[in-house]
Amino acid sequence: MTHPFLDLPPLSAAHFAAIEDRVARLLDTRQDVVIMQGEALLPLEGAIRATAGPETVALNVITGPYGQTFGNWLRDCGATVIDLAVPFHTAVTAARIREAFAERPEIDFVSLVHAEAATGNTNPVAEIGEAVREQGALFYLDAVASVGAEPVLPDAWGVDLCVIGAQKAMGGPAGVSAVSVSERAWARMAANPRAPRRSYLSLLDWKERWVDGGRKALLHAPAQLEMLALEACVERIEADGLNTVMRRHRTAALATRAGAVALGGGLTPYVHEESDAAPVATTLRVPAGVVASDLVAEALASDDTLPLAAGGGALSGEMIRVNHYGVDATVRAVQSSLAAIGAGLAKQGLTVDLEAARRAAESAWR
């Protein structure tokens, strides 16, 4: 018995390359784009291990948990790491970046997360990229959550390594990701004796055996399902129009924020300034005496399709995340999430206004 998901023909090298080209157009980049067969942690780690070593002096910006992970990888590579941490309820500024450069002019690598879905903030990459270009440092960007929800422009922003994933605003699976690589980044890898080779983490393997070979022979058997899903994601964004998709995500964020404020019950936006809030996910602080993870668990017990999660780690007690990305960037998903949160708060004796929240979200959406 045949099955459309099991009996797939092999994916050709030409088809693989064509999907890479479509991703490059999505990013408006002339850099090489390499699609990697795994969740975005694969190119995120691979790009750091390829370009960092004992001679590297890295400015690692921490606005959420992934920035902490990048710092760990950089140290593991032997790099000298200067962590620039800002409170998770805000964003870093280009002025803070320039201050770090003035204090440590030897910095030659900058790592940054664009949108932190885990904490609900987003960073002004265009302005930061200008500061990084002035410094002449290599610029590494995690745009996994932001791609599809807000502009991601590696060439215009001077990003040397831009990693994206399909599983958030692109509305696809977690098993495929990509990285755009500048000529400067390729040169840094080639000069790094510690860069992985003959390894699943190796970007240089892809450069030498795929890119430089004219993209005619793949390194290994491609994951057809994930590649076809990535292609479908890009096709859907192209059909809707990237600006339309981004506007839908931004509107979902505005609607969630407005609805949460109108709901009351002591619920407040976790990210203080609207301009610092990511369009991919909105984080909310629960009132004192309420445990966020318990509130989310109760909501999901009633409806496990709600795009809700508690904050990770130490934030699990105080933060709720509304993940309005991909197919959940809709007014219905926003209103259903707020209604479930409001019902949970009401059960704990807090005064909420479910109708006001519904109206506020709908008004912001319009």
Q: What would you say this structure looks like, in words?
A:
The chain is of the alpha/beta class and 366 residues long. The protein has two domains: 13-240, 3-Layer(aba) Sandwich (Aspartate Aminotransferase, domain 2); 242-365, Aspartate Aminotransferase, domain 1 (Alpha-Beta Complex), CATH 3.90.1150. Helices cover 43% and strands 15% of the residues. It has helices spanning 13-26, 41-51, 65-76, 94-103, 125-135, 154-157, 183-190, 203-211, 224-240, 242-263, 292-302, 331-347, 354-365, and strands at residues 32-36, 57-62, 80-85, 109-113, 115-116, 121-122, 138-142, 161-165, 177-181, 268-269, 282-285, 308-310, 319-322. The protein has a seven-stranded mixed sheet, sandwiched between helices. A four-stranded antiparallel sheet has the order 10-11-13-12, covered by helices on one side. Helix 1 runs parallel beside helix 9 (224-240), helix 4 (94-103) packs parallel to helix 5 (125-135) and helix 9 (224-240) crosses helix 10 (242-263). The longest helix has 22 residues, at 242-263. It starts with 12 loop residues before the first helix and ends with a helix.
Give a short synopsis of this structure.
The chain is α/β, with parallel strands linked by helices. The chain has 13 helices and 13 strands. The protein has helices spanning 13-26, 41-51, 65-76, 94-103, 125-135, 154-157, 183-190, 203-211, 224-240, 242-263, 292-302, 331-347, 354-365; strands spanning 32-36, 57-62, 80-85, 109-113, 115-116, 121-122, 138-142, 161-165, 177-181, 268-269, 282-285, 308-310, 319-322.
